[in-house]
Design a protein that fits this description.
It contains eight helices and two strands. With 164 residues, the protein is mainly alpha-helical. It has a two-stranded antiparallel ribbon. A hairpin with an 8-residue loop joins strand 1 and strand 2 (13-14). Helix 2 (49-56) crosses helix 3 (60-68). The chain is globular, with a radius of gyration of 21 Å. Residues 1-6, 10-17 and 111-115 have low confidence and may be disordered.
């Protein structure tokens, strides 16, 4: 990091840029959310990080950093992602929890405390994505409907067991 002296020429200090991170230096929750939506769509399409990177002129490591929220996605890159992943730009902001939306760099710049930790979104889990992909690979619509009904019945039975 570049060093500079204060106006009086005193001891050099390290200059730090928050670049939209939380006061503790963690990736901003909004960037993490956008990254999880990129990963969600890429996985639903059955696309590897390497393939997505190739389509964007990036390495798969850069795609990983975007998906984790480690690196922020610029507007032009978000536009490219929306084209390659065949979704509107708004897709990347859908289903954002209010707590995450309140963590925008504009709003956290004056906060002194860390935003509350958020539970992992079950829709972004690999298990969920694999289940959805397997479900849609069932060619017979009647069988697919029965699997759907079975899943709902099992969930209802689990809820009933928790109530007792």
């Amino acid at each position: 990091m570049p060093e500079y002296s204060d106006a009086g020429g005193k001891t050099p200090r390290t200059r730090r840029s928050s670049r939209g991170r939380t006061p503790q230096g963690n990736p901003n929750p909004v960037d993490v959310h956008v990254g999880s939506r990129i990963r969600l769509r890429r996985t639903l399409l059955g696309m590897s990080q390497e393939h997505l990177g190739d389509a964007l002129g990036l390495t798969f490591q850069q795609v990983q950093k975007y998906e984790r929220g480690t690196n922020r996605v610029g507007a032009s890159r978000l536009w490219d992602l929306s084209r390659v992943l065949d979704v509107p730009v708004s897709f990347f902001y859908e289903d954002m929890a209010p707590e995450v939306a309140e963590s925008s760099p504009r709003l956290i710049s004056g906060l002194s405390e860390e935003p509350e930790a958020l539970d992992a979104d079950p829709l972004s889990r690999r298990e969920t994505l694999e289940l959805v992909r397997a479900y849609y690979r069932i060619a017979d619509a009647t069988v697919r409907k029965r699997v759907f009904d079975l899943a709902k019945a099992l969930a209802a039975a689990a809820e009933d067991a928790e109530i007792r």
